[in-house]
Amino acid sequence: MKNKPFTNIDVHLKSPILATKAILNVINTKLCQNSAKILNVKAMQNYECAKIVVKKNGEYYIQWYNIHPSTKLLSRVRKSFNLNRIKDLAERKLQAAQLQSAINLALANEWNYFDTHALQSKMTLLQALKKSMEILLMNVGPETVRTYPSIMNVFITWLNSQNLVAISPDQFTAYHFTEYLQTRSDKSISNVNNHILVIRKLFKIMQTVLSIIDANPLENIKFRKFEETDRYEAITPDELKAISDRLRSDGEHKFLLFTQFILFAFIRPGHLKFLRRSQIDFDNNTIQVYGDRTKSKRNIKKQLLQPLKQALIENEVHLLHPDTYVFGKDFVPALKIYGTLAQRAREKWKILVDDLGIDKRMYSLKHTGAQMYLENNEVIDLPWLQRQMEHSSISETETYVSKRKIKMLDDKSLNLPNY
Question: What is the pLDDT of residues 289-309, one digit of tens each?
Fold first, then answer.
């Protein structure tokens, strides 16, 4: 039983509450009672009791001493357990006191921090990746639970092909990862950046939570940059049809409606979580967007275009109670705000377009809607476009228009004089 009950303590270092529970849950009542008698002893043969350390800058740490297996001497351990992320000082003090007590109970039960890390240091890279993924998925949504492991599995497949799965985590280098990224050179920029993001997070957990590597080898790996043309590139008609056909065939009518709002109303994905039924006026064909939800910080009444109006009626949005949010969890109407709606939408969009082989971001729908207006109207109504795009000034709209690919006239039909 020695050491084993406490080998998962450092897995929970991200949360002081989880760390406390992880320790307390493995100590039965009898052990607690027996060890309580020695908790006031300042120095033991194999450890020194934990204490709360408050630095001059106000940061909190828990400090204790354990025998280090290499030197056989008492060595200091000082951990913040992310206590300093707790803004409320009274709550921070409470969590620190609970951690102090819990660690002292663990020490009295012969737990040794360094023994725990000695076990962790024997992890292979494959084991460390899987353990880190378990921790990473503790507080994420259902879409992330699906996408993050899939990225890790692609990475593991490559590691296996390079005979790297059995190396220790500290043997993996930035050069290795650069080689991995080269195998994804044919993928979209978003796809590559997602792989950098997820795998970097896994190594960050190995460094800060599991403490099995001293530095994150991916720390200086930079995200791929979108070219300016990529950022403003509209989705083609064929791509739009492929996307809408797939969503309809999959029965994803609510998510389709979500994307139609971006396309036809130019509303940013992050703002759609605030949209209530009462903001949509079917009689006057308008959508009211409030100032605290717009880029210009002003109340804006947008035009409800007919394609979107028809989609809303087909989804029976006009029958909803005025206080109902049009998009909640799973993009269905709800009575409360679904805070991570935009994140879930981006994840869902990425899965969709990656499967279709389309390298366009969901935000491109907004630019596509503007592009359709510009290409299909000989006379550009800048004030209308400014209002629809939620721009704070007409000059911003003019700059935006200048970046668009405007439809060219057929010069063969023009009666131009020779000069």
Answer: 886 655 556 788 899 999 999
Name the 3-class secondary structure at 110.
Answer: coil
Beta bridge partners of 289: 300
Whole-angstrom distance, CA of residue 130 vs CA of residue 132: 5
pLDDT tens, residue by residue, 92-130: 888 888 888 888 887 887 778 877 555 555 789 999 999
Closest CA to 55 of 21, 92, 20: 92
SS (H, E, C) 16-81: HHHHHHHHHCCCCHHHHHHHHCCCCCCECCCEEEEEEEECCCCCEEEEEEEECCCCCCEEEEEECC
Q: What tokens were used for 371?
A: 């592009």
Measured distance CA(80)–CA(59) in Å, rounded? 8
Q: Look up residue 96 and give its DSSP letter.
A: H
CB 19 within 8 A of CB 12: yes
Q: Does residue 27 carry a pLDDT above 50? A: no
**Which tokens belong to 115?**
């023994």
**Which tokens hold the place of 275?**
């949209």
Any idea what the Cα angle at residue 91 is, between residues 90 and 92, rounded to 5°? 90
Verdict on whether the full-model pTM lies above 0.85? no
Long-range CB contact pairs, 223-228, < 8 A, 24+: 223/193, 223/196, 223/197, 224/189, 224/192, 224/193, 224/196, 225/189, 226/189, 228/403
